[in-house]
Amino acid sequence: MKTKILLGLILLLSTQMWAQDANAIVAKADDKMRGNKNYSEITVQIIRPTWKRELKMKSWSLGTEFSLSYLLSPAKDKGTVFLKRNRELWNWLPAIERTIKMPPSMLSQSWMGSDLTNDDMVKETSNKDDFSSKIIGEETVGGRKCWKIDMSPKPNAAVVWGKVVTWVDQKDYIYMKTEYYDEDEYLVHTMQATDIKTLGGRLLASRIEVIPADEKGNKTVMILNKVDFNANVGPSFFTVQNMKRVK
Questions:
Q1: 101: buried, middle or exposed (CB in 10 Å: 19+, 13-18, 0-12)?
Q2: SS3 labels along 110-133
């Protein structure tokens, strides 16, 4: 009887430690990827069985509260801006000179016809703040030993996913693979990271492929060309008025 009780206590403590470790792992991976503030230059390739489209953009972020993205190309979309300011989401469309406030329902919609969602691009969801995490195993992804972590939305968290499963590199805390599930726990899409290199003084995945679960031959590729984790931006940069002025 005493042996059973002792084994039970050990199992309980181990489970609690793993849960605590998982949250710390996700927080460290998030902080490494985002930093407190950053500027980045990104190429987005939308790939379909019969065609391909490429977009280039600049992006700034400050903590988890602010982000702003400016499209450089193609020419017809140049100047389009996406802004996140706390819980408010805005879109500036220079072609019609109109600023649109995006409702929360648009977070799960496709970003610019890609396999990414608006939530992916404006970083509304925070892995470390909006999910409770637990380690469910260990696997090797891309030649790197990873923790396999299950992330469940916290009560009342404003997230578009029912569940997320992610693989975090145990050495450099890089998100190597992430699966996104809807509220019915059907797989929506998978993100796979490759081309690990030093950007902005940190070892990061410079290429991420987003592969939808039910659309064969479709994928979106994000290529991180440049990162600066010392960007000179403050809250005053992330305003609706500045969406029309930023270049």
A1: exposed
A2: ECCCCCCEHHHHHCCCCHHHHEEE
Residues composing the chain: 247
d(CA 224, CA 80): 19
Which pLDDT score, from 0 to 100, does residue 8 have? Answer: 42
The first and second tokens of residue 189, run together, are 């899409």
CA 38 to CA 60: how far, in whole Å? 6
Which residues lie below 8 Å from residue 89, measured CB to CB, with a gap of 6+? Answer: 82, 83, 101, 102, 104, 106, 107, 118, 122, 124
How does residue 124 score in pLDDT terms, banded at 50, 70 and 90?
low
101 by DSSP, 3-state: which? strand
Query: E strands along the chain, which residues?
Result: 37-47, 52-62, 66-73, 81-85, 88-93, 98-101, 131-141, 144-153, 163-169, 175-181, 187-199, 202-212, 219-228
Low-confidence winner among 99-108, 122-131, 138-147, 179-188 (lowest mean pLDDT): 122-131
- In the chain, the domains with their CATH numbers are 30-244 (2.50.20.10)
pTM assigned to the model: 0.84
Is the separation of the CB atoms in 30 and 127 below 8 Å? yes
- Least confident segment among 70-79, 106-115, 123-132, 196-205: 123-132
> Tokens 């608006």 correspond to what residue?
118
Q: Of 130, 150, 128, 135, nearest to 19 (Cα)?
A: 135
